[in-house]
Amino acid sequence: MTWLRSRLGDGERGSALVEFVFIALVVFVPLIYIVAGFSAVQRGVFASTAAAREAGRAIATAPDPATGRDRALRAAQLAVEDQSVDATDVRVAYAAAGADCATAAGYSPTLTPGEEFSVCVTVTVRIPFLPEFIDANTATGQFVVERDRYVDG
User: Is the full-model pTM beyond 0.85?
Assistant: First the structure.
């Protein structure tokens, strides 16, 4: 009887391994890709928020607008690089007080005492293994700056 059982089970040997490999390829690989994609997007959101905050701090303490814009751009690039995001896709813009980042075009801070404005930093987020030309995913961080009313000079 033992001989009969062993002969009937010979056709099923190794099928569990084949099924596991098939399930791993069909389920686990896309799941890992989705997690990697979400983490890339979240990293971009963190990078844009941190970059806006650092750029706002840099421009708020600058002696003049030209120096402030240069400092803000460099501070934003450093903050984005700190989150392991490509810093070549960083855009810094400014919006008037109360405006959101969508209407940020054309405003330039004068850095007068008491001036209030927003710093908007937009970072392009790249999803792993997608082609370079697919760059429609962006994250924008906004930081409100209020220039100190009591400034020397």
Answer: no
| pLDDT tens figures, 54-88 | 999 999 999 999 999 999 999 999 999 999 888 77
CA 12 – CA 56 distance, rounded (Å):
66
Complete DSSP assignment for 72-127: HHHHHHHHHHHTT--GGGEEEEEEETT--GGG-TT------TT-EEEEEEEEEPPP
CA distance linking residue 59 with residue 145, whole number of Å: 9
Q: Establish how many alpha carbons lie within 13 A of residue 137's alpha carbon, considering only the half-sphere containing its beta carbon.
A: 17
Q: What's the CA gap between 22 and 110, in Å, rounded? A: 62
Which residues touch 87 (CB under 8 Å, ≥6 apart)? 77, 78, 80, 81
CB 77 within 8 A of CB 123: no
3-class SS letters over 9-42: HHHHCCHHHHHHHHHHHHHHHHHHHHHHHHHHHH
Measured CA angle at 123 (ends 135, 39), to 5 deg: 80
pLDDT of 2 above 60: no
